[in-house]
């Protein structure tokens, strides 16, 4: 019996010999051993890793797999006792190091406990779905972590919803910020932080939760110095914000971050070039950080959080902070990189979106860092004016100044120049002339940009009816023989036509070409002669040429003028032409051209009861407010056409009186000749208009247009 029991004991891994143990004792030990062995066998059958764990040495590596036993134990609970533990791992970025040892242990914990819910929070996204981490962690790639992998194949960003299990908390709204600050510190259920302080903190935070947390800490710290917190104590950034932001970045990533903070938005190439690096790796790692937001549809998709950007530029007291010279060189690199992108991508990105975006960023860079060499900005400025679209460039202003100072750098002067040119669509032309004169007086513009300012000031003088001043400015630009010379020659031709010297205007056309808008100048000469067909053909040619040169602004001008002259002879067709003009104008910002379209609508409706007179009264006010005096004679001529068609001599006489007053300075006097011809009245005495055709032929053409409209209206009744 003892021999048999000894063999059994050996088989059951009990002590090597039973010796002289009593049979009862051996029997009890055997029963216990058999029971424990049976339980062990069941456990081994249900828990696959148990045997390996029992045999392994209990070192740190082995112990890191023991969570599997807890997960298995949880899985054995009866259905009525089932639970899902929630495990929070906060500030996960603190696990980062070169070897990822701590992260490997925590990742095993998550992997081995699939029946638990882990919430992992930190400043950086989890990279476990990246194949590049193979060998650094045990479980990597999208097959291991499909919930962390993006659907597009790109590295998952915390801001994307493609990684369904990885989300950026995001910025707080202003309401959220105020609510958080109001409830963060209370006494007797009342907020300790007053509404004035909360407003300052909210504005400075740009919704960044970390900024709010630091502000609360400062609010608690100030009373220890014997003071009461005031709004001014929070109207700044926090150095700790930058310290925390930069703490887990590599040296190259910090370099790229500072360079990118100079720009409103970047792509990988722009960020890399601004940093002066040869490779994109650091920029690629940086844009995956939550501090960088992404708009995949933007020209430059990556944008640094405003609170971090402001703090980095204002309170960078880290050990490797940049000197002013470092910032200046980085600004030069960023400006040059913007210029290269505009030159390289302008053929791939048609239209003006890229141009305007580059100008906005470039002008701010050049101004804030006093970059005297404007480089590509000069070329971009001329490209901006070529399109005649006039998007608002939103040049930066110094927020700390009660009133923006005058230009004191070349970039300031260029920004003011382009702003004045664009704003003339919304300001009185007198204001435009004043702003351009002021920027010219600074002497900060280069030769070419000086010509640009002179040209648009001359245009403003022309609009104001200052023909002599306009001619002087146009002559200055033409004599410089620069890139604006063709435009200046066009301006001189138009001024000759305005003075009624049509032969001189016509003689200039062969020298104009596309840049001088030769077709449009010719049409402006033909239609006052009543030669509507040839004027229409010239405006159509101008529109076609504008389309060929991808000039949407010029196309809209040509189309609107085509509708205007068509309205005199073919009101039905004019309706279609005017509809197309409005379609073109809807995407632009052209005030004068829009007023042209309204006048064209009056001519189209001339002779009808469509409130033509009342609409003309409204237009007269809009023209006066805009400072576009040169449009007034055209408006009165359109109204004269209406009264002539209606055969209303008294109304026509009143209109002629206003027309004579509007042309008393000698400009547009040919409109008086046209209006009298429309009404069948005698030619004005002492007319100085130099027509291309004899005056009698011109008068007959205009009278014929009136009778044709009368016949048309009788036929439609």
Chain-wise SSE layout:
Layout: H1 2-11, H2 23-46, H3 50-55, H4 60-63, H5 67-75, E1 86-89, H6 101-112, E2 117-120, H7 174-184, E3 186-187, E4 190-191, H8 195-205, H9 209-221, H10 239-246, H11 251-260, H12 268-275, H13 281-287, E5 292-294, E6 302-304, H14 306-314, H15 324-345, H16 353-368, H17 376-386, H18 410-423, H19 429-441, H20 447-463, H21 467-480, H22 485-498, H23 502-508, H24 518-526, H25 532-548, H26 552-569, H27 571-585, H28 591-604, H29 612-626, H30 631-646, H31 649-662, H32 670-678, H33 695-716
Parallel strand pairs: 1-2
Antiparallel strand pairs: 3-4, 5-6
Helix pairs in contact: 1-2, 7-8, 8-9, 11-12, 11-13, 12-13, 12-15, 15-16, 16-17, 16-18, 18-19, 19-20, 20-21, 21-22, 22-23, 22-24, 24-25, 25-26, 26-27, 26-28, 27-28, 28-29, 28-30, 29-30, 30-31, 30-32, 30-33, 32-33
Structural account:
- The chain has 33 helices and six strands.
- The longest helix has 24 residues, at 23-46.
- By secondary structure, it is mainly α.
- It has a two-stranded parallel sheet. Strands 3-4 form a two-stranded antiparallel ribbon.
- Helix 12 (268-275) crosses helix 13, helix 15 (324-345) runs antiparallel to helix 16 (353-368) and helix 32 packs across helix 33.
- 58% of the residues lie in helices and 3% in strands.
Poorly predicted regions: 14-24, 152-163, 396-403
Distance between the termini: 132 Å
By helix and strand content, what is the structural category? Answer: mainly alpha
Strand order of the largest sheet: 1-2
């Amino acid at each position: 019996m003892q021999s048999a029991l000894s063999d059994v004991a050996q088989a059951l891994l009990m002590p090597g010999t039973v010796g002289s143990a009593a049979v009862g004792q051996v029997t009890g030990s055997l029963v216990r051993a058999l029971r424990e062995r049976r339980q062990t066998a069941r456990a081994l059958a249900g828990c696959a890793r148990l045997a390996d764990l029992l045999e392994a040495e209990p070192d740190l590596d082995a112990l890191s797999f023991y969570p599997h036993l807890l997960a298995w134990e949880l899985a054995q609970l009866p259905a009525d006792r089932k639970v899902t533990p929630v495990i929070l791992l906060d500030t996960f970025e603190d696990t980062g190091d070169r070897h990822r040892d701590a992260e490997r242990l925590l990742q095993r914990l998550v992997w081995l406990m699939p029946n638990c819910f882990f919430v992992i929070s930190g400043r950086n996204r989890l990279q476990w779905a990246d194949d590049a981490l193979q060998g650094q962690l045990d479980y990597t790639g999208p097959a291991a972590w499909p919930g962390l992998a993006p659907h597009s194949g790109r590295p998952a960003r915390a801001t994307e919803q493609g990684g369904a299990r990885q989300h950026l908390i995001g910025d707080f709204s202003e309401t959220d910020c105020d609510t958080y600050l109001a409830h963060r510190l209370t006494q007797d259920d009342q907020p300790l932080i007053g509404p004035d302080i909360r407003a300052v903190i909210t504005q400075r935070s740009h919704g960044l939760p970390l900024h709010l947390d630091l502000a609360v800490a400062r609010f608690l710290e100030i009373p220890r110095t014997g003071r009461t917190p005031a709004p001014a104590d929070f109207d700044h950034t926090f150095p700790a914000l930058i310290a925390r932001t930069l703490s887990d970045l590599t040296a190259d990533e910090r370099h790229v971050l500072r360079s990118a903070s100079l720009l409103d938005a970047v792509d990988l190439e722009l960020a890399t070039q601004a940093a002066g690096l040869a490779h994109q790796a650091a920029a690629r790692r940086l844009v995956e950080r939550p501090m960088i937001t992404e708009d995949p549809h933007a020209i430059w998709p990556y944008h640094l959080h405003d609170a971090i950007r402001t703090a980095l530029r204002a309170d960078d007291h880290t050990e490797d902070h940049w000197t002013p010279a470092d910032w200046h060189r980085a600004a030069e690199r960023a400006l040059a990189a913007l210029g290269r992108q505009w030159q390289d991508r302008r053929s791939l990105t048609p239209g003006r979106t890229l141009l305007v975006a580059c100008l906005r960023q470039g002008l701010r860079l050049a101004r804030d860092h006093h970059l005297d060499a404007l480089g590509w900005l000069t070329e971009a400025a001329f490209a901006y004016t070529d399109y005649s679209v006039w998007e608002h460039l939103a040049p930066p202003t110094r927020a700390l100044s009660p009133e923006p100072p005058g230009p004191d750098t070349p970039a300031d002067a260029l920004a003011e120049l382009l702003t004045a040119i664009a704003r003339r669509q919304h300001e009185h032309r007198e204001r435009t002339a004043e702003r351009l004169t002021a920027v010219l007086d600074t002497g900060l513009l280069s030769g070419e940009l000086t010509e640009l300012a002179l040209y648009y000031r001359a245009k403003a003088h022309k609009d104001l009816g200052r023909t002599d001043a306009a001619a002087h400015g146009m002559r200055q630009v033409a004599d410089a023989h620069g890139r604006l010379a063709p435009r200046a020659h066009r301006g001189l031709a138009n001024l000759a036509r305005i003075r009624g010297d049509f032969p001189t205007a016509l003689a200039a056309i062969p020298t104009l070409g596309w840049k001088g808008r030769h077709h449009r100048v010719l049409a402006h000469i033909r239609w006052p002669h009543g030669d509507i067909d040839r004027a229409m053909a010239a405006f159509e040619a101008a529109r076609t040429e504008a389309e060929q040169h991808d000039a949407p602004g010029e196309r809209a001008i040509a189309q609107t003028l085509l509708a205007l002259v068509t309205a005199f002879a073919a009101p039905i067709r004019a309706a279609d032409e005017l509809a197309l003009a409005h379609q073109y104008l809807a995407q632009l910002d052209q005030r004068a051209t829009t007023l042209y379209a309204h006048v064209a609508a009056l001519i189209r409706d001339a002779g009808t009861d469509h409130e033509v007179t009342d609409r003309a009264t409204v237009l007269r006010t809009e023209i006066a407010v805009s400072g576009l005096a040169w449009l007034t004679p055209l408006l009165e001529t359109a109204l004269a056409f209406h009264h002539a068609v209606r055969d209303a001599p008294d109304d026509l006489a009143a209109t002629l009186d206003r027309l004579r007053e509007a042309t008393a300075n000698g400009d547009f006097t040919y409109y008086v000749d046209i209006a009298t011809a429309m009404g069948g009245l005698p030619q004005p005495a002492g007319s100085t208009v130099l027509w291309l055709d004899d005056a009698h032929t011109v008068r007959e053409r205009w009278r014929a247009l009136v009778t044709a409209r009368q016949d048309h209206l009788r036929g439609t009744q």
